[in-house]
Design brief:
The chain contains one helix and eight strands. It is of the alpha+beta class.
């Protein structure tokens, strides 16, 4: 009986650990590149472009920021419009879908 309780307890701890992990924000397929903030051009509505994209297998150098694109600062999600206030020269991580060329996340 005690061994059953121990196994259940271990199983519950394992499940708690699994569910406490952060869920990835990106949806496959995606690529992540580092880019200078001066390569981002954004309109007042939060849409725009990221130019200067370089990655293996990419035959383009431009991706689109859409209404579904998101942004985060040190892991905390913020309004995408905060990207407009980043100083030039700041290095950002941009994740995008290479098939649709749409930005999923901008992080800094």
């Amino acid at each position: 009986m005690n061994s059953i309780k121990v196994n259940i307890s271990k199983s519950l701890m394992f499940l708690a650990m699994i569910f406490s992990l952060n869920v990835m924000a990106e949806v496959a397929p995606y690529r992540v590149v580092e880019i200078d903030s001066s390569n981002i051009k954004m309109a007042l509505d939060g849409t725009g472009i990221v130019k200067g994209i370089r990655c293996n297998g990419c035959d383009f150098n431009l991706v689109n920021i859409t209404e579904s694109s998101k942004a985060s600062i040190q892991g905390a999600e913020v309004d995408i419009l905060q990207v407009r206030n980043i100083k030039a020269g700041t290095i950002l991580m941009v994740s995008f879908n290479p098939e649709t060329r749409v930005v999923q996340y901008i992080r800094w």
